[in-house]
Design goal:
Layout lengths: L3 E10 L2 E11 L4 E5 L6 H9 L6 E6 L2 E2 L5 H5 L2 E4 L11 H7 L12 H11 L15 H15 L11 E5 L7 H16 L3 E5 L3 H7 L2 E6 L2 E7 H4 L2 H8 L3 E5 L5 E5 L2
Parallel strand pairs: 3-8, 3-9, 6-7, 7-8
Antiparallel strand pairs: 1-2, 1-4, 4-5, 9-10, 11-12
Helix pairs in contact: 3-5, 4-5
């Protein structure tokens, strides 16, 4: 079965344990949110799942093989990463940055490469930003451009049927409320169409509304993984985030938390 999983995965750097003994199994076709307080190891876990870091204990597997046994070129055809930092070293414009998402496909390009880039930019609402230099954009505009780049990288299903993975590190941090919801709705649709989506989030209400399942981290370890509504119960929220909360039903019928209760 096609899965992305970590087995007792941990990571140490500079004598400090950033992540300790996390076991989690992720499946394509689902949107999983990684949650936890500051310093819990959320970004570290995502970097292990993406193959950008190698665990110092345990292992990460893709399709039952250690992820570092997958060649980088092959991995780039199947997983795209949107990091927290969204600046680039050169004066690329927004369209050029999105086009970078197609580089892994240069050995076997699609017939409509230009259309893929244009369509990815339209999906994230950045078409008008195409000529603008990326580093002149606002934080939210940069984030949407990088989301378009990641979508362009994974645009079409793989010919061999292998899974695709979209890994996002705090994709909503710089976005206004409207763009937070539109971006989360977009990646949820991608999951519904068969991609595996994993996103580090801080907003529990976004997770409640859009994520199929969550991994909750505390003190560098996975406290629980499971369906969102079952896991994000008030008792767990109070334990992990150490804040008062009340789970209520919003005007649209969706559950949401009020904090400080």
């Amino acid at each position: 079965m096609s899965q992305l999983e970590c087995i007792e995965a941990g990571f140490q750097a500079g004598g400090k344990t950033l992540l300790s003994g996390v076991t989690a199994r992720l499946s394509p076709g689902r949107f999983c949110a990684i949650l936890g307080p500051n310093g819990a190891g959320k970004s570290t876990l995502l970097s292990l799942l993406s193959g950008q870091r190698r665990p110092t204990r345990g292992e990460v597997r893709l399709d039952e093989q250690p992820i570092d046994r997958h060649a980088n070129a092959a991995l780039a055809l199947r997983r795209a990463v949107m990091p927290q930092e969204s600046s680039v070293a050169f004066d690329f414009n927004a369209q050029e940055v999105v086009t970078l998402g197609r580089l892994p496909h240069r050995a076997a390009p699609e017939a409509n490469e230009g259309e893929i880039v244009a369509d990815a930019m339209a999906l994230t609402g950045v078409s008008a930003l195409g000529p603008r230099i990326l580093n002149t954009l606002s934080g939210g505009e940069k984030a949407r451009v990088h989301l378009a780049r990641a979508l362009a990288q994974l645009w079409n299903p793989r010919p061999d049927g292998s899974s695709r993975w979209l890994l996002l590190d705090e994709p909503t941090a710089a976005l206004d409320v409207a763009h937070q919801h539109s971006s989360m709705a977009l990646v949820r649709r991608w999951a519904a169409q068969g991609a595996g989506v994993v996103a580090v989030l801080h907003d529990l209400n976004l997770a409640l509304r859009y994520a199929d399942e969550v991994i909750v981290l505390g003190s560098g370890r996975a406290m629980v993984q499971g369906p969102t509504a079952q896991v994000l119960q008030p008792a767990l929220v109070r334990e992990v985030w150490r804040t008062g909360c009340e789970l209520v039903t919003g005007q649209d019928g969706a559950p949401q938390y009020l904090f400080g209760a």
